Amino acid sequence: MADVLLEVEGIESGYGKKTVLQGVSLRVHEGEVVTVLGHNGAGKSTTLKTILGLLPARAGRVVFAGEPWANGNPVENVRRGMALVPQGRGVFPDLTVIENLMLGAYTQRDTQSNATRLRDVIELFPMLAERRAQRAGTLSGGQQQMVAVGMALMPRPRLMMMDEPSIGLAPVLVQRVLETAQQINRRFGTAIILVEQNIKTALGVAERAYVMKSGRVILEKPAAELLAAQDSWWELY
Hints:
Oligomer: single chain
CATH class of the largest domain: Alpha Beta
Number of strands: 10
Shape: globular
Strand order of the largest sheet: 6-7-8-3-9-10
CATH topology of the largest domain: Rossmann fold
Strand content: 25-35%
Helix content: 25-40%
Largest sheet: 6 strands, mixed
């Protein structure tokens, strides 16, 4: 097993006076794909936001790449190698495709490295080259998702967190989007946390899985084991 890249221990966080996460612990190894499953309100998105620092943790501990992470400082965490593809895609609709992608590299000052990474992203999503001058808001949902993923890839993250990347997409595109996560993992060695409600598809691309309920992790298993025995743990989910 590769070295642990992310170690989350007992984090608690929430919104205002409401506590959502109640002692969430998980880990991700270098180059691993992990999926986090659970119904709406289970705390999946809140977990990703807390790891990135968009929500400060009220309790618990996080270690990223062997160092304490910057609690409540997402810019610093991005510099250290985290990235988030938010639910709802999060593109800048009035900016062109290329402008969106370059904004994804805002923490990086190496122009040559950014140009190389832009070529990598274009190779992964050739459609983006064809529409590079088109405003992102005029793209289809699937195309906007490509832009959002490309933006997250621009700073060369070691860990990419993807929050419901298939939401709002036609069924024919769902498998394609999740296969893209596999391609990113294999091509760049990027570790991935994939939050998904499409259980079978998510388990098919991940190595390990966590199941959340009411702000807690209630189950952790190899993804293939959960996929093969879905009926036995469905009630817990």
